[in-house]
Fold this sequence. Notes:
Serine Threonine Protein Phosphatase 5, Tetratricopeptide repeat, 0% strand, globular, Ankyrin_rpt-contain_sf
Amino acid sequence: DIESESDKEVFPTAEAGMTALLFAVESGNEAIFKMLLEANANVNAQSHTGKTSLYLAASKQEDMCEPLLNAGACVEAKTKNNGETALFASATSGFSRACEVLLNHGAKTEVAESVHGSTPLIAAARHGHDVICLLLLKAKADTEATNKNGETALF
Length: 155
């Protein structure tokens, strides 16, 4: 974790709350990503909306999920604006490898986002991501969980 003032100079935060690691993940720059992990960049830093590097990886760069988790990324971190987790992001985006890695690291299948109350299974079903639905079902996701509109993954 970045605590001291000298560390803050090495790992500055941009105006939108984006750290160099968040930018590296968002852009898919693997060389910078690896360099920052080796330099112990804060893997749990959040943007102003609460997105972590793991959340971004789960929705854009799924090969970066495992290294982030191995470096201590919190698998259950939620975004500030809608309470989404990295598992929810992978379910919505359709990244099955990210979903599998997150589940293997203990991601909870029943954590619902706060806007509509949808679980990752409901999101995956709504977006037509059948492989992710299967992964979530194998992980014992609740098929009868409902969102705020009373909808299940089966609608």
